[in-house]
Fold this protein.
Amino acid sequence: MCLFMNTMKAVGLTRYLPIDNPQSLVDVVVEKPKATGRDILVKVAAISVNPVDTKVRAPKERVEEVPKILGWDVAGVVEETGPDCSLFRPGDEVFYAGSIARQGGNSEYHLVDERIVGRKPASLSFVEAAALPLTSITAWEALFTRMSISQDPGANKGKALLIIGAAGGVGSIATQLAKQAGLTVIGTASRSETVNWVKSMGADYTINHHDPLLPQLQAIGFTNVPYIFCLNALEKHWAGISEAISPQGVVCAIDDPTSPLDLKLLKQKSVTFVWEFMFTRPVYETDDMIEQHLLLNRIADAVDHQKLKTTLAEVLGPISAENLRQAHKFLESNTAIGKIVLEGFA
């Protein structure tokens, strides 16, 4: 329970510190927001943790006067709607990723624009649903918007997609979506547990991202692939990607390279390179911002019709600074499989 009606519990930060520092994420009490305009106020039931959380929290000199709240995966119940809302009503169960330009969802209540919110899959618990929004939006936009892959299975017959880093949250959803679209999916994984996970998501083949890509692709019958979706260590894999991509193929990436990329490696093959950043629409409030609402509803329908499954891998307990520090530490180890979720406030 909050101490006062107009306050709420949250987990935030004022300094950007290494995750082993107890002050890197702290339990706080902050003002409870109120819905205006097209915002809805959501009572948070469960949240998930993503690499973007660790990147935002990463050590830097800045100090926040007001605690900064992270968290861009939420499942919960609409508590209140702004006067301009038309998509939701109080009591609706929802899931969404939110906007990195605003306070995150690691709080008892959270404000979010209704145009980037979807209805929670009816067949999932809040915990299972919280694992899906950010990764689903990222994977969907990458495959079908940025890479312009057809959603018609007939159009993709004989075409293959290589997913580098397929065992994570985005890779797990991208594998499922690509299989539905009729693509042959090759996922990279380096440990027996990640290989098994990637196969359980539907991948046709797995190869090891620690070894050269092209020889492994050739060993399973592919001289090259028309689509490559790179989810981590882009600069490390860049030369291998340029070798493995088909002439006139498409490469999409989501991570931040630590050094400049040599785009000339793609020139001779006339390869298209595109970025996917799922916060682009909400941050810039693009004219097609509502596409994320429609996209999440499609994801919910696919889940409820058993065409997609949650990528929940572990529940760490209630939402608290201690548990979130544990989740961040796990993500920073680069050994996480699927998604880590926390449920409710103690």
Summary: The two ends are 9 Å apart (CA to CA). Residues 7-132+281-343 form a domain with the Quinone Oxidoreductase; Chain A, domain 1 fold (CATH 3.90.180.10). The longest helix spans residues 133-146.
